[in-house]
């Protein structure tokens, strides 16, 4: 057992992301303390964690390594790493980080899972800003391998290295994002595609369902094993340039969110939760999409777990 493995991991917030982050560290053998202020959310944690055990056919004993607490400072004391997954509000996150600084050693890593708030801002009032880093997990964090490790203007190289080492050790795929920019890397790529997809529907080129089929059954079918840079090099940059010359001038350049998106939101068409968004959804269809996604990600996670165990890095 390595030193890092014997250390305690803190998780702040036991909601959607927090409970999954707690699970993945516990599954890898760490002791995890979760601070969650809401009694309802705290009391639902065992059930939510148990359903992950069942989804992944894991040993339920691993849940013994997770403790839920109702106070931040005692829960986080002596943690070597703290992952914050509290609501997406800057003053709240700043307050949490200020309290964390008084609870942990100056060398402990303080990581925020914020999707959009720069960790530069979250850590602005701290004394030891070099150990504040962004760790952008993807939902669900116990199933999606990628974690974007975002270095802000104050984060030390050592903090980035230690965070990436820990994430690799628990079976994640960390990447180093060298600047703290909005959307990091993954969401910028994802939203660049969504922007064009919405514009195509608005222009009447195809309907929203067709967009999903084109992505899932077309380039999406190979995206899990072939990234866009590999794909460009595979077909040749001369071809990539020829296509770019013809296509780029024709791609959507609407400034700001597309009117179609604004109009749907204004009309209360928010997606599956209201029965209609870009597409129409019955509750059964929405459930089928969720189940399909969960099944697929769980199968992938089980395969990765097997590879990890076979390579001798597993737990
Ligand atoms: N949901 C996603 O897909 C996703 C993906 C990546 C990153 N994130 C980010 O992760 C963070 C958490 O998002 P979520 O979806 O898990 O939200 P969530 O609402 O499910 O969970 C947040 C939890 O924090 C708790 N909380 C409230 N006040 C708190 C406090 N003062 N200290 C600690 N905990 C407190 C809440 O009770 C809640 O259980 C956000 O910053 C979000 O932007 C979310």
Which properties best describe this structure?
8 strands, single chain, 50% helix, 315 residues, alpha/beta, binds nicotinamide-adenine-dinucleotide, globular
As laid out across the biggest beta sheet, the strand order is 3-2-1-4-5-6-7-8
Distance between the termini: 10 Å
Helix segment tally: 14
The stretches of 5 or more residues where confidence is low (pLDDT under 50) are none
Q: What string, H for helix and E for strand, traces the elements in order?
A: HEHEHEHEHEHEEHEHHHHHHH
Beta-strand fraction estimate: 5-15%
Secondary-structure-derived class? alpha/beta
Rg value: 21 Å
Helix content: 40-55%
Tell me about the biggest sheet?
Answer: 8 strands, mixed
Query: Judging from the principal axes of the Cα atoms, what is the shape?
Result: globular
What does this 3D model show about the protein?
The chain is of the alpha/beta class and 315 residues long. It is 50% helix and 13% strand. Strand 7, helix 7 (157-169) and strand 8 (173-177) form a beta-alpha-beta unit. Helix 11 crosses helix 12. The termini are close together. The model has no long low-confidence stretch (mean pLDDT 95). The protein binds nicotinamide-adenine-dinucleotide. Nicotinamide-adenine-dinucleotide (NAD) binds next to helix 2 and helix 5. Nicotinamide-adenine-dinucleotide is lined by residues 12-18, 35-38, 41, 85-88, 92, 96, 113-115, 137, 139.
